[in-house]
UniProtKB/TrEMBL annotation:
Designated name of the protein: Peptidase C56
Naturally occurring in which organism (per UniProt): Faucicola atlantae
Domain of life the protein comes from: Bacteria
Chain ranges of the DJ-1/PfpI domain: 3-168
InterPro entries attached to this UniProt entry: C56_PfpI-like, Class_I_gatase-like, DJ-1/PfpI
Family classification: Belongs to the peptidase C56 family.
Top-level taxonomy: Bacteria, Pseudomonadati, Pseudomonadota, Gammaproteobacteria, Moraxellales
NCBIfam families hit by this protein: PfpI
A Pfam family: DJ-1_PfpI
Length: 174
């Protein structure tokens, strides 16, 4: 059983957290919700409509890459935009990528790969509105349900979640 970190700020696309979490738990993995919000209170969105509130298990400052086997970044425009500008999130993502452990990002979440310079030379996918940002950062953008490049796994949107979860599970078993 692998231990998987899910990192959010707040106002994330709820289904991009709950559905991969549930699918990965069904496959026997343990999941932990980590946030950059000091009070650990985060909110999901259904597109732009407020959805459920969640209490994160850990603050990012209390999380260590060595405690986890993989990192998942749910999307949502507001959440992803906030994370990409937070030094703590950038450092955590960079440490995960450098560790060689799987790092999975869906929808707008691959935006952080632009600000961390991870996108350059990588094969990536994401929600169509950030494709140009990834291309401008040097990524080779592919319009597919899931793209795996080394330890980086990316998907485009909620319809891709089953393929996304399967790719994460496969990477953990490799």
């Amino acid at each position: 059983m692998a231990k998987i970190a899910f990192l959010v700020d707040t106002d994330f696309e709820q289904v991009e957290y709950t559905q991969p979490r549930d699918l990965l738990q069904q496959k026997g993995h343990d999941t932990v919700l980590i946030t950059t919000q000091d009070n650990k209170q985060v909110r999901g969105l259904n597109h732009t409509d407020p959805a459920d509130h969640f209490t994160a298990d850990l603050l990012i400052g209390d999380a260590s890459v060595s405690d986890f086997d993989a990192l998942v970044l749910p999307g949502g425009g507001a959440n992803s935009d906030a994370l990409r500008f937070k030094d703590s999130a950038q450092q955590f993502v960079k440490q995960f990528v450098d560790s060689g452990k799987p790092v999975a990002a869906i929808c707008h979440a691959p935006w952080i790969f632009v600000d961390t310079k991870i996108a350059d030379g990588k094969r990536l996918t994401a929600y169509e509105t950030i494709a140009i940002d990834l291309k401008n950062a040097g990524a080779n953008f592919e319009d597919k349900s899931v793209v795996v490049d080394g330890n980086i796994i990316t998907s485009r949107q909620p319809d891709d979640i089953p393929d996304f979860a399967d790719a994460i599970d496969s990477a953990l078993k490799a």
